[in-house]
Specification:
It is a single chain. The chain is an alpha/beta fold. Helix content is 40%, strand content 19%. The protein contains eleven helices and nine strands. Strands 1, 2, 3, 4, 5, 6, 7, 8 and 9 form a nine-stranded mixed β-sheet that branches. Strand 6 and strand 7 form a beta hairpin. Helix 6 crosses helix 7 and helix 7 packs parallel to helix 9. The longest helix is centred in the last third of the chain and has 24 residues.
Length: 294
């Protein structure tokens, strides 16, 4: 096998219904020099059998079964830790890549050393693979100046740019970011601590070409989390969501203030946050911040 330029990490748990389709979409890529790392989080269905069958016929596929379920976040970390290639992307076991995905994303990220994460628009699928809509990540196009794009990753609720967590990234930049994080209390919004820190490492961009499909269905981690929350009262759900959102906002500010960004860049982002959150600060300071060139 030729040396792989990109590693594809697939964390999976009980994915027998979709995992074969996800693997097939990778095998039909026009760019063939990849390595697929599958980390099976102690599945209890036919996931192991399916993955081992593919691995036995293609040397680019490495399958590892975990002895116990270590949680979704840790499983995402494990495939990243095992990556040896300069570029990396996660492939959810229920998602699908267009044949040109890897070639298109590698061409985008390699064209500019300042880019640490390159994504595309996303086709949103239902449980049966039907296309519901296309999520266009217009807020982070290459034509938009980076200091305007960057603020997208320091607000909560975030726009649809959270989907770019499934873009192609520079492995070392992502590993640096991920190594300092612990598992989020909830999966909803769990992309934000990662994306805000990546945005401090370099540029994030999305091209206007939907070459990746993201599946939404009743068996996803997010859906299970929402179903569990439905047992709470309305006030309890509101309180939990309030705490969760504010924890994410505090974390984003912590990531920003502790980053290597210049004081000017930090000031621009904080000015933006003050405006969208309506933070109450002394009038003299507010006037100075709101008049800044952000």
């Amino acid at each position: 096998m030729n040396e792989s330029k990109i590693c594809v990490g697939m964390p999976v748990y009980n994915g027998e219904k979709y995992v074969g389709g996800a693997i097939e979409s990778l095998l039909f890529q026009t760019y063939p020099h990849f390595r697929l790392l599958i980390s099976d989080n102690a599945s209890t269905d036919a996931t192991e059998k399916i993955c081992r069958e593919y691995a036995s016929h293609d040397s680019r596929i490495i399958y590892v079964r975990r002895e116990r379920n270590c949680g979704a976040f840790e499983n995402f970390r494990l495939v990243l830790n095992d990556a040896k290639s300069p570029f990396f992307t996660w492939l959810a076991h229920d998602d699908v890549l267009d044949p040109a995905y890897l070639a298109t994303m590698l061409g985008t990220i390699e064209a500019d050393d300042r880019i640490v994460l390159a994504a595309s628009d996303f086709k949103i699928m239902d449980a049966d693979g039907g296309i519901i809509k296309v999520e266009e990540l217009d807020a982070i196009r290459p034509t938009i100046q980076w200091h305007h794009r960057r603020v997208e990753f320091f607000q909560n609720p975030i726009s649809n740019v959270y989907l770019c967590i499934y873009g192609v990234m520079r492995t070392e930049s992502l590993r640096k970011v991920f190594s300092a994080l612990s598992a989020p209390a909830q999966s909803s919004g769990g992309e934000l601590p990662i994306l805000s820190r990546i945005a401090c490492e370099g540029q994030i961009v999305a091209i206007p070409d939907a070459v990746r499909s993201y599946r939404r269905h009743a068996y996803s981690e997010y859906a299970r989390e929402q179903q569990a929350a439905s047992s709470y009262s309305i006030n309890e759900r509101r309180w939990q969501q309030f705490k969760h959102n504010n924890c994410l906002r505090v974390d984003q500010c912590r990531a920003l203030l502790g980053s290597k960004l210049s004081l000017v860049d930090k000031f621009r982002i904080m000015a933006y946050l003050i405006k969208i959150y309506g933070i109450k600060i002394p009038r003299s300071i507010r006037r100075l911040v709101l008049q800044s060139n952000c």
